[in-house]
Amino acid sequence: MQVLQSTAFSYLDPSRGFDGGVNAFYRLLYRQLVTKAPNDAKDPNAMVPDLAESLGKVSADGLTWTYKLKAGIKFANGAPITSKDVKFGISRSWDPEIGIGAPYLKQLIAAPKGYLGPYRSGELRTIETPDDRTIVFHLKAPFPEFDAALSMPSGTPFPVGTGGGDSFIKNVIASGPYDVEKTTPGSLIQLKRNPHWDAKSDTVRKAYPDAWRFTIGVDGATIDERLIAGQGADINVVAGSVQTATVARLQTPQLKARTIKAPSTCLTYMSLNTTKKPLDNVKVRQAVNYAVDKGSVLNASGGRQFATVSDTILPSAVSGHVDYDPYPSANHAGDTSKAKQLLTGAGFPNGFTMTLDVRAKEVDQRQGEAIQQALKRAGIKVRLNVIDASTFYETIGTPSQQHDAAITGWCPDWASSASTFLPPLFDGRHVTAKGNQNLAQLDDHAVNAEFDRISAMTDLSAANKAWGELDKKIMALAPVVPLNVANRIYLPGTNVAGVIAPSGDLDYGIIGLKDPAKG
Fold first, then answer.
1. What does the DSSP 8-state code read for residue 242?
2. Parts of the chain with a pLDDT under 50
3. Cis bond leading into 278, ω under 30°?
4. N or C end of the chain: smaller count of CB under 10 Å?
5. How far apart are CA 40 and CA 70, in angstroms?
6. pTM here?
7. Which of 140, 168, 170 is nearest to 154 (CA)?
């Protein structure tokens, strides 16, 4: 099986890596106690047992979670995977040099103050291993979605004592269906089958191909050309979403039949800084929501193929999403009359001037210009502040440097609920001087209280309904303007099967070849 990609993976080490591209790759190499269901499952967002026999058993006070490992599971080196290995792998997250990936486990588990991981501080006693197949976690506070936190890459087990320093930068110890055979930094990763992986113990990964070859550093336009031509070994190629300029070429019946359009869980939105006048006035923020021509922004984003207009904060692929439109307009073209009415009521009949931060990228700047033109019709003058892409997120994440608004985006760390979507963006108690995610700086007591109430709910289905209702309450305060949800456009090779992406991301665990003989 061949994969073509432009950029290299962040890290082979799952305690260090934490981004969408590498997470899909990790699924081939690693297993966790719990993982996301496969993309072809009835509920692809659900959390399911992986190395564990079942989802966690939680104590009455919500502070203790217990798991029992499946029998006979092994690492690629043939050693059994024990509870002590799971504990060790997770405790690596506290190492200040290594644990730079998914933060949730070290935020949730009640580690002693000053604990710096197994290499510096030794054993983490708040994770107990009463026997080789039982592991018990003690949390700082109840967290009903602890199963989901364990599905993150930082939940990967490793043999006790391994992986210190930089030893996992170039090679690792696999627990999934494949192992690293060869790596050439920046250009190639080859995977071979892990002979000690037991398919009977793994209900998530089908692992159809005998080997995987990731070719890295290929220009995006070149990848698309090869996929369109589909010559020779390229019939067995899969790659990321095609380039914007390529979409217009995917119109022949043959290419249309191969094209897969998948809505993602990632929202593009414009934040409105509620600490800046006059955006501290909710009527002004509501006026901005009415004034934005989302259709024009969609065209600037590449059109309907590449994105879908969003009226809500939560994308449709995130559990808890509710369809509603709090600021309706015909064809999503904006309602200038309603915007002007609200501005007059707020004391700004002649509008006002605001500064919009955008990345120095063509699409982002086109989106900013579309917003600028729409708001001008309502009397709002928008100055575009173009920021270098390398420093954009650092700048807008520093409240002392951000302006009135910014075009940015957000993807949840898991889509089985909105717990990694709404709280990071709108919990006013977590506004920070640097690395701030609540760009609107919204600090509403009622909203904050709802975060606490819903996060403590043990009935996750009921919690998802509550998240959807909270989406409505937040949008009534208009701290952001949801713009659109990105679509991924895939063009797999003609001999590739299993390209199913209900949440936008590929699942390599179920991808294979229609005719393996042509591989």
1. P
2. none
3. yes
4. C
5. 23
6. 0.87
7. 168
